[in-house]
Amino acid sequence: MKTIKILFGILLSFLIFISCKETSNKSPVSHHDKSPIQVQKTKKITWIELHSLDSTFVYDLRYATPHNFVHKKMYPCAKCFLRPEVAQRLVKIQAELKKMGLGLKLFDCYRPGKVQKELWKIKPDPHYVADPKKGSMHNRGLAVDLTIVDKNGKELDMGTLFDYFGKKAYQNYTDFPDTILKNRALLRNIMKKYDMEPIKSEWWHYSYRKKDYPVEQWVWECN
User: What is the domain extent for residue 94?
Assistant: First the structure.
């Protein structure tokens, strides 16, 4: 009888152990089951129109007008779409500039791939226009052309106009008064602080390089 009680105790302990092990295994399985759903939801958010996050940005979207180096309208209407990673960074940069009485002015955001081909026909120079065979960071929604404006919307002096093709637009060009150099440094430093990297030939161009997307041909609708 004593032997039966001992065997029964061992069996009961074994059953409790198995039950606890199965319970402990259920938690991580349930957690991992949710992950694909979250990823799928994230993938649905492909584009963000910048003004929907912050209405205080200033816009002069040149390729939606004839006021550009091509001298013709390239976009159906003036809208600034970006990938979420870039849009969210610009909102943070804008918030920081507001504390200084300043803000961002956008010249260009996402650019459809077919527009890149048109720009290349006019200016087939990779220093200023990316070869459409590889595509621009603009075509991926990961680049912006911009400057800084004061509280009245007036652009800070950066030494040249937007889309100036020449050495004066280079990041390392220093033959300017200190005011201009400080303005460029302000733009460069605050953009880099949020992982938006410059290119050497254009003081206005910054891109997010920690992510990649394919070149897009999508064109937004106009209301």
Answer: 48-208
